[in-house]
Structure formats: C-alpha cells, structure tokens
C-alpha cells in the first residue's frame, strides 16, 4: 500500500471551523442577545469561537470595529418602513432583563 508521503494528522479533536468576519459577528451578536453589550469583548467572543483574541484582529479592527460590524448587521436586518419605536423595542429585547430600561409610551 502506497502512502502519499505526508504525515497523518495527530489531532485528538476535529479541526475548528475557519474564522471569518461573519462568524465573529454572529458570535458577538449571540453574546449581545444573551448577556448584553457589556459582555461583548474580544476575549469573550474568542472564547465562544474556541480561539485566541489575537486571531480576531485579522478580521475586525478591535472592539470598536466589532461593534461597528454588529451595528451594521443589526441595522441591515431592520425592514424598511419599520417604526423607530419598534426598532428600539427589538434592541431593548437584546439586553438582559436586569439592565433593561423602560421606554416611555408616546
């Protein structure tokens, strides 16, 4: 039996999914929804993706770049004609209950 000459991988676990800006923003938005904005950090997002924080900087320019990408994603999901009150209500729903503020009824 012939072998290719390349060493066989000795990994004990499957390879990680490749990183991308989309995967990073997905993880950050999931953290935002579950734990609130204060919980979104480069280290926290990296932990959710099973990688080091330094790996994220290839795809996003620090926390500010990550927040901008998250904002763009969230705003892109808003349908045209949606009332601002509805958008704010949806964004309020992303915060943990202990930090939600009551919006005045207009």
Describe this structure in words.
By secondary structure, the chain is mainly α. It has one domain (21-99): Arc Repressor Mutant, subunit A (Orthogonal Bundle), CATH 1.10.10.60. Helices cover 47% and strands 0% of the residues. The chain has five helices and no strands. The longest helix has 15 residues, at 21-35. The model is unreliable at 96-106 (pLDDT under 50).
Feature tags:
106 residues; mainly alpha; Arc Repressor Mutant, subunit A
CATH superfamily: Homeodomain-like
Individual helix count: 5
DSSP summary, beta strand count: 0
Q: Estimate what percentage of residues fall within beta strands.
A: under 5%
- Alpha-carbon distance between the termini? 78 Å
**CATH top-level class:** Mainly Alpha
Helix share, percent: 40-55%
CATH topology: Arc Repressor Mutant, subunit A
Q: Can you tell me the CATH architecture?
A: Orthogonal Bundle
Largest sheet: none
Report the structural category: mainly alpha
Question: What is the radius of gyration?
Answer: 19 Å
Put the structure in a nutshell.
This protein has 106 residues and is mainly alpha-helical. Helix content is 47%, strand content 0%.
Give the topology.
Blueprint: H1 21-35, H2 42-48, H3 53-56, H4 62-76, H5 84-92
